[in-house]
Amino acid sequence: MSGIRPRYAPEVAAALASGAPVVALESTLVAHGLPRPDNLRVARQVEQVVRQEGAVPATIGMIGGELVVGLDDAELAHLASAPEVRKLSIRDLALAAAAGVDGATTVAGTSAVAAAAGIAVFATGGLGGVHRDAPLDESADLTTLARTPIAVVCAGVKSILDIGATLERLETLGVAVAGYRTTAFPGFYVSDSGFRVDWSFDSPQQVARALHARRAQQVHPGAIVVANPVPPEAQLDPELHDRVLADGLARMRAEQVTGKAVTPYLLSHFHTATAGASLEVNIRIIVNNAELAGRVAVGYAAHPAETSRTDTWVGAG
Ligand code: PSU
Ligand code: MN
Fold first, then answer.
1. Could you tell me the domains of the chain?
2. Ligand 2 centroid to 139 CA: how many Å?
């Protein structure tokens, strides 16, 4: 049978062994977040952007029960088009391996696997969080990031969520949050969610310094969220956004969509109801984040920490 242990793409294994920059990428946004066939094109483009910045992309997912760190092009194409691809959060990983299925990893699943592999930087679109009007539906992205040492470059949390409640939970959980060149917390499809954060980064090098400091201090076991807003000229018209979201939430309730189907349902509703405008923004977000993550990974690799590369402390990968 295929391995129980994760399989590494040779290029990713070599980069990790030599301390070269690596950026982890998730597969749920490919399999469940973006419509076909754009999803495969975007997945390839994002890897290309990471390479252009001088880092090695490692898209993470599961093929036939085998966890893969660095999917090859055929595997990426498979997850982008196969009829049955499971959505894998951290708790699903071992069950999915035992079942031998194909699966796409969420922010929670991807960040945990990436950190365990020794990857310091991860790029995605937007984090999961606390859902509106469903207080018990909170993404495992939050609790996972609380104990996963990695930088996550994202456009904040998805605007379909209760952003204020999500920020409060991130605070409680001890997840570090800083804006990239802003203290206005981004709202995924829109540049500014209306909420503020306490910190901002001015440069990729500053993010890299924070990563090194986190490791050297050995105090904070969790993630650093780098909230990178979509430029205002590229955002979704906020009025259109609010209208489409209200309509989507109402339909979702009528159709009784719950659980892990909620996020894909609302994203897909946006893409249809805005005639592709939200898709353009979503793609722009992912590409921007991959670019910044590539720069952070390069900055991080350029200045090896004074401490050992292996955390010996709690929560370490
Ligand atoms: N970013 C995107 N599109 C997505 C996601 C992120 O631009 O589809 C995915 C991530 O994998 C994230 C998931 O972990 O949405 C959240 O799902 P849930 O709310 O069920 O935890
Ligand atoms: Mn959920």
1. 7-307 (3.40.1790.10)
2. 5
